[in-house]
Amino acid sequence: MLGNFEYKRIRSIEEGCQYLAEAAGDGAVLAGGTDLLVEIRNGLKSPQLLVDCKGLDVLNVFSVDDSRSTIGASVALNQLIEHRVFRTTHPALADALASIGTYQLRNRATLVGNICNASPAADAAPVLLVLDAVVEVAGVEGPRTVPVRSFFAGVKKTTLKPDEIVTAIALPARSGLRTAFRKQQRIRGHDLAVVNAAGAYSPAKKVLKLAIGSCAPTPVLLDPIEVDSKDNEAFADHVIETVLRAVSPISDVRASAGYRNAVLPILVKRILHELLFEGSGA
Ligand SMILES: Cc1cc2nc3c(=O)[nH]c(=O)nc-3n(C[C@H](O)[C@H](O)[C@H](O)COP(=O)(O)OP(=O)(O)OC[C@H]3O[C@@H](n4cnc5c(N)ncnc54)[C@H](O)[C@@H]3O)c2cc1C
Questions:
Q1: CA–CA separation, 95 vs 110, rounded Å?
Q2: For a tag site, which of 7, 18, 30, 33 has the least CB within 10 Å?
Q3: pLDDT classification of 217: cutoffs 50, 70, 90
Q4: CA of 120 to the centre of ligand 1 (A)
């Protein structure tokens, strides 16, 4: 049973921001609803106002190629996954999105909803972090941009203001980056990550970026790591040590902290193999 709330299907982004400003923190944006409606039903959230953006064509557009890409807030995951060039230009993001829920869920769920929900386990988050993605935001005071590394503020908390609506995610030009995503779940099939991780390696700069999810209150982006080692095993040990120092997994219903600490090195090694040691990462 869903709670009592007012529902507004908005005709412009400005109108939505105005409604949210009037709700003064008691409003929520409704995208696919696959997180929000479940949380309302379970009594975890009780917004007085839902602002439904899905009718706005301006938010249901995306452009993806090797230069800068933009993904609108209402674009469903399957629109991206099934796009003919998206998998080629953004293979790790495509893998992460394809691992979310079921096919039916991905027909509704959005990339923007995945990060605005701010779950530490959000599968898109580590990839967006290593890609240096930027969140485009509209509010009553006008538009602004937030680097995704400054977007997460805690479990289920973002740095958005109450009147703000995310309009799109921008991905910078790929510049020859090789990227990879790995996820460990409790079961095969659809399940949230026990641990997830993404890497982006620039062969030109010899720099590796890594981000880890489900091992801290927010997804963790590590400082860039210089890749100059001739000894793969020693380099892998160094990276794993750095990763384990950067995270603070807890035990919860999905896994113990010990299990997460044990799985993480395996995921990191797989990413290193794909991006560096085999040189076959896309
Ligand atoms: C059965 C099931 C399986 C799932 N499996 C996974 C999984 O494997 N991996 C994973 O990462 N997630 C999973 N999820 C969570 C969820 O499906 C994803 O996070 C999804 O991407 C959320 O997108 P949405 O469009 O449905 O967001 P919504 O539920 O509509 O919104 C989520 C949150 O973001 C806010 N929001 C949405 N759009 C905006 C906007 N434009 N501006 C500001 N705030 C906004 C909402 O107010 C809400 O707080 C699962 C959920 C279910 C029910």
A1: 15
A2: 7
A3: very high
A4: 12
